[in-house]
Amino acid sequence: WRKPKYYQISRIRSFYMRKVKFTESNLNEKLTGILGDFPKIEDIHPFYADLMNILYDKDHYKLALGQINMAKHLIGNVAKDYNRLLKFGDSLYRCKQLKRAALGRMCTIMKRQNSSLLYLEQVRQHLGRLPSIDPNTRTLLLFGFPNVGKSSFVNNITRANVEVQPYAFTTKSLYVGHTDYQYLRWQVIDTPGILDKPLEDRNTIEMQAITALAHLRACVVCVLDITEQCGYSLKQQCELFNNIKPLFANKPIIAALNKLMRRD
User: What is the edge-to-edge ordering of all strands in the sheet holding 139-143?
Assistant: First the structure.
């Protein structure tokens, strides 16, 4: 028969305090990493700030990050409060119960962040698929009605491989290609087709093009289909050009007449 080994209460307290502190520091590290990895709307270029607002809703994005930040502080407070209580634990059972309560409260706080974490994960995956656009480099920005030949033009002058189909709204997001002209590197951006209607009636696909036109310093190329095979008359295409012209004030503008060979 061996006599059971008993530890001093101070050693028991410090053992469970370390467990609480270790759990808190792990969660704090993970949550700090999440907050640091996502860009702050206020710190990024206005083009990307507006694009994120269109694609993900700026308020929802800020709210989700705010809830994660709040969870981080709550977990820190829980660890602090329970470590304070553990200093006065008078038995092994009491210390174990306090540790269990502390970890349970931390888990409850994290479970409540489930919807915010799922939303941020979707944003993270989508951000990874967005094209890398440099707002400060030489840029050609194409715009026009759907199916006027913007994507074909980009495919011809760059190595981009934008999908081309004989129907409208094939291009549903911004695409980027690069080309060299007179020993200079140019960024060529293909935007989704725009319809001539009020700004508040435009959908998410069209608003990406509007955001690019408004914020990027670029040479704007208005692509016009003079055969009208796109389904819109030349007059309608010119009206679209005139209606959104204020968006590219102080930017060089080129009107590109496309599908000339077909008209002949």
Answer: 175-181, 184-190, 139-143, 219-225, 253-258
Q: Considering all CA atoms of the chain, what is the largest pairwise distance in Å, rounded to the nearest integer?
A: 106
101 in Cβ contact with 82 (< 8 Å): yes
What value does the mean pLDDT of the chain take? Answer: 84
Q: Within 10 A of 206 (CB to CB), how many other CB atoms are there?
A: 20
Beta carbons within 8 Å of 146's beta carbon, 6+ residues apart: 168, 169, 170, 192, 193, 194, 195, 230, 231
| Identity of the residue numbered 114 | N
Cβ-based burial of 147 (10 A; exposed 0-12, middle 13-18, buried ≥19): buried
User: Which pair of tokens denotes residue 64?
Assistant: 């989700």
* Per-residue pLDDT, 51: 82
Q: Which of 79, 83, 84, 89 is nearest to 10 (CA)?
A: 89
User: Is the model's pLDDT at 3 over the cut of 50?
Assistant: no
